[in-house]
Write a structure and sequence with these properties.
single chain, 216 residues, mainly alpha, 9 helices, 74% helix, 0% strand
């Protein structure tokens, strides 16, 4: 079992992320989707204490994006200088999601009044969440070396803060954030899949087995 995803896995995951964005759109356009979305939003608002929700809102809108954006820019420049084209291309592939999210929200996606309580206007997808996911993905892709457990935990925590924070103080619905995640991650995974060089890290123990075999 290798530790690096294959081209096929990356392309399948990209399709899955695109499907996630499509499924989130169902939460805007259909009665069952709006009901499920409203239920999840209520769960978040009623479960997390108000001070924690306010903190998450402040982190997601816009503290984390502001903090991560210059880090992502510096890492991108470092990657270009070192000719690390694959992660740089993948990070750049996420950028069109920002104007796409604005276009979808303002000009494309309607929000029909289906009798479900909530906002009377369209907020799909969340531009704040899109920007947050774009810079977070860039930092994860371009960070030097392989992240340890702490790095993975911090990246997951930042992603959750961006996702929940955009819902926690009534700015967006959960489907808005899911849509943002999908339109950011899908092109990134697609780019990684299309630029896959076929080199994978050998399974654990392979090097040990080779050394042991050479000593016998």
């Amino acid at each position: 079992m290798t530790t690096t995803p294959t081209r096929r896995e990356l392309l399948v995951w990209s399709a899955g992320a695109g499907a996630l964005a499509g499924a989130a759109l169902v939460g805007v356009l259909t009665t069952p989707g709006q009901l499920a979305d409203a239920g999840l939003a209520s769960f978040i608002l009623e479960t997390i204490p108000a001070p924690a929700r306010q903190l998450l809102n402040d982190l997601a809108r816009p503290l984390l994006p502001y903090l991560l954006a210059p880090v992502a820019a510096l890492l991108f420049l470092r990657g270009v200088v070192r000719r690390q084209w694959r992660p740089c291309l993948a990070a750049a592939a996420a950028l069109p999601a920002i104007p796409l999210s604005i276009w979808l929200r303002d000009d494309v996606v309607p929000r029909p009044d289906l009798g479900v309580p909530g906002y009377g206007w369209n907020t799909f997808p969340s531009t704040h969440a899109t920007v947050g996911f774009v810079v977070l993905v860039a930092v994860v892709l371009l960070w030097p070396g392989r992240p340890g457990r702490l790095g993975v935990a911090l990246a997951v925590a930042a992603g959750l803060a961006i996702a929940v924070g955009n819902v926690a103080w009534y700015a967006h619905r959960p489907v808005d954030v899911l849509g943002s995640f999908g339109i950011v991650v899908a092109p990134v995974l697609l780019t990684l899949g299309l630029t896959f060089g076929g080199q994978t890290r050998p399974p654990r123990g392979t090097q040990v087995q080779k050394v042991t075999k050479g000593m016998t």
